[in-house]
Amino acid sequence: MKAPISPVRFLRDAAVFAPCYIALDWASYIDPVGPFNITPWNPQPALAIVWMFLGGLQHTPVVLATIFIADVLVRDAPGGYLIAAVTSTILGVGYATIAWLLRQFLGQAGLRSSRQLTVFCAVVLGGTALVGGAFIGALRGAGVFDEVSIPAAWLRFWIGDAVGILVTAPLLLAVADSEQRRGLFALARRLETALQVAVLVATMWLIFEGLGGDPREHFYVLFLPLIWIAVVGGMNGAIVATALVQLGVVAGLRSEAAPEFPVLEIQALVAALTLTGLYLGSMVDERGRAVESLKESLRLAAAGEMAGAIAHEVNQPLTALANYGESALVVLGAGGARTQLATIIEKMLREASRAAEVVRRLRELFRTGTTHLEAVNADELARSVQRIAHQLIGARAIRLQLRHDGELPPLYIDRLQVELVLRNLIANAVEALSTRLGPDAAIDVHILREGDDRVRIVVGDSGPGLAASTRRRLFEPFFSGKPTGMGLGLAVSRTIAEAHGGSLEAAPGPRAEFHLVLPCTKTI
Ligand code: ADP
Q1: Spatial distance between the Cα atoms of 68 and 75, rounded to a whole number of angstroms
Q2: What's the CA gap between 2 and 7, in Å, rounded?
Q3: Can you give the pTM of this predicted structure?
């Protein structure tokens, strides 16, 4: 429970709570059973429960006293003061228990997910059923309630309290929460909201006045605007819409034209409508949050992929820098010539700017998809393949078979990006081979001419190959057949190939064989 609040705050809260509670009790005292507070619409318990839920159970005595005073002021304590005191205690303790249970199960988070909503509904429906039973049992025990049917009175009390709380408590909780309040204000400022409210009000007018007859007959039409509002506005929209429906229903029931309406059944329909709206709203919100968190993980994964690529690519110049640094020290120690030192420092600067260039280009690719095209000799590319494969294979017993057709035109590509693709393909091949290293474990890379202005680079391996189910999803982002794989390598590689105006495909057949086609002339 919260720490006790200051007496001034306590009195101030009580001075706001008590009149509001009494006013709500007075406004909702319609269609009672006998002279008692057994009506089909009771929003005031929601006020008590939300106050105790947010502020703590120290408010219970004020709640008890207010319920008693309301009974005296609104109904003139029909069973006498003693019975009013007993029933007020039953209600006050019952509502405090509901508030306590909600605090236990919902925490301070309130109603955010459909799971929390289910807990809220279960506690409210179960709690009000028990409170109703105790309330009516006490009246019956005191002998002031003999002439009326107990089950009907209990049902009326239960539906009245349950609907009152289900509709009003979410609204009060939303208003009390600063973030949700901002959401409500944002919703109120939208033009579509005004249209939705107008449609809702018009529908209610039609049901209670326009179409004439029993409002239950056309009540189902109200589900349409409610669903529209919940789908567009989420939980906040649903909360406001159900509160408006409840107010509209009460206004309709109080109108001159409607003295004979079956209030209880209409309230049961309001309960069904409210639950539909709240669940739909919470699911819409949950979906929105899931989309946001997916976007966030996509951003993180892309950042991770980029970090991996940068680490790979920058490692080489960094190692070279360290080596040159060491040679410089050796030259210095041996009293070497200035020209020798200057050559080493020049090489160091070249490596440093190469590292910086790698980082810059990769960042640009991931951010804007920009490529820096240049003519790259096929022999140069073959050397890159050799270097990358050498690094990735390390000490493993894997052979690299590199072939390339003699006369190849220079490629027109972003060398760093294409090296990244080759690195991904070769890394996948090495990993696939590592799962069952046999004596003939080999990766073969074949560079060949494709028509007049293209080059095809085929990377295959003698590993287990691609299962049909894997093949179908190879290029999907986040698809990975490895326990720790990120599943972005092939997706990013295809993006790079296509950004060049080329393509990346897996060849049909069981063998793992990837075909990278790149242009030799300016195609994009
Ligand atoms: P990751 O390597 O992070 O899993 P990739 O997009 O690079 O992501 O690869 C996706 C999946 O494709 C791999 O997890 C693997 O199951 C399959 N795959 C890719 N290349 C090969 C290959 N040469 N042999 C077998 N399976 C492969």
Answers
A1: 10
A2: 14
A3: 0.61
d(CA 228, CA 197): 11
* 482 CA closest ligand 1 atom index: 14
CATH 1.10.1760.20 fits 1-173, yes or no: yes
| Letter string b/e over residues 11-27, b meaning 16 or more CB atoms within 10 A of that residue's CB | eebbeebbeebbebbee
Cα 466 to ligand 1 centre (Å) = 9
Domain ranges of the chain: 1-173, 294-368, 374-519
CA 510, chain centre distance (Å): 39
Which CATH number is associated with domain 374-519?
3.30.565.10
Residues 406-463 pLDDT 10s: 788 899 998 888 988 998 899 999 999 988 777 889 999 999 998 888 999 999 999 9
Cα 72 to ligand 1 centroid, rounded to whole Å: 76
Closest residue by CA, ligand 1 atom 1: 487
- Which of 392, 426, 459, 480 maximizes ligand 1 atoms within 8 Å of its Cβ, making it the mutation to test the pocket? 480
Q: Per-residue pLDDT tens for 78-108?
A: 888 999 999 999 999 999 999 999 999 887 6
How far, in Å, is the centroid of ligand 1 from the Cα of 460? 12
| Ligand 1 proximal residues by C-beta, below 6 Å | 424, 428-429, 432, 461, 463, 466, 470, 474, 479-482, 485-491, 512
- For residue range 265-311, what is the model confidence (pLDDT) as tens digits? 888 899 999 999 999 999 999 998 888 877 777 666 666 666 776 77
Q: What are the distances in angstroms from CA 441 to CA 345, 390, 422, 438, 482?
A: 42, 14, 19, 5, 20
Residue 330: which H helix or E strand, with range?
helix 263-333
